[in-house]
Amino acid sequence: MINEFADWLRLAHLEPDHDTVGRRWDGVEKNTEELTENDAIKLVLLFNQMPTSSDFIADFSNKFHEADNSFPMTENDLELSVLSGAVIAHTISENTDVDISNILALSVVCLNLAGHRNRCPVPEIVNRCREHLEKTRAALRGPTAHRIKEIKSITKNTFDEEKIVAACAANPPSELATQLTTIVKAMASSLRTANANDKILKSQLDIFREESDVLWWLTAAYCRDRNVTFENLPWPATSLHLGKDLAALVKKLPGPSAYFGILNRAIEASGNDASMQYPLASTVSKMDKTSRTNWTEETSSSVGLPLCPILNAIHLSSKASKQGDWTPKFKEKFSIAANTKLSAIDLSVQIFHEILLIRSLIEAGE
What we know:
The protein is mainly α. It contains 16 helices and four strands. It folds into three domains: 5-143, no CATH class; 156-203; 221-364, no CATH class. It has a two-stranded antiparallel ribbon. Strands 3-4 form a two-stranded antiparallel sheet. Strand 1 and strand 2 (228-229) form a beta hairpin. Helix 5 (77-94) runs parallel beside helix 7 (123-141). The two termini are 32 Å apart.
């Protein structure tokens, strides 16, 4: 059990005793089992008190009711939000399914909108999701992740050649099985090590390719999304194009640990100040119509779209008949004004994470 769980329950205006905490935690563990990508999306929506599937909410609540028949099944939105957050925190701490853990963490971080959208009742869980992503990134590129194991050679010492010859000549060859078993076990051990090393080498190759591509991208200062130099991108939409570009270069999810510094350097290479703040609505409006249409087509079918504020802003603006017509719908959906100001680097990091979330869901479903 997470040590802070009882404190989280108090945020839902509960004063749980020892037994209640235990029964609620039993429900958390039941809801953690066999989470799918779609479940992860619905779980994060519930945590953020946003509309989600009524069937999912019923199933989620029933698991708590099975653990405690006094569990309220109506008028308990705040408690459900806290409990869904506990399921998220427990899932990423156990990390038994890396894909699901990454999807949950990216989803929570995306909906938080760089700290500007604080609709979840337990901010600590948002911090846990950020920490999970940083630890995962570091682990993928750490020295222990790429340690190649030595493959033990099958030498004459592995088996006794004279005993095998004698066993073959015997009638019946009773000792042959023992000798062959020794050889097969040694070969199987070497094969397992070789397969593990192959996996490590493929991972290393992906990371080397990613690092090389990012280096050339920064050096050339050329935007893949628009086919122009960084300096010729429409400011401040530059930050969005650069974030999308970097996400496309990622070979190992959830991306490099240095993503913030890379994007900061890219914005500087465009001749602009990464710390300057701009309204989200005006930043999106600076994107040309073709880019907004293309981004909408690329992401419209993703189940992760409801968790991505900037992509939703792009979708809404691309369909609006007049500039600004879409902003009320955005505020209704995300409970935050479309003219909320974010720094250029925050905008870039935000779209970087949103694109990675969409990719994570695609790759997890393959």
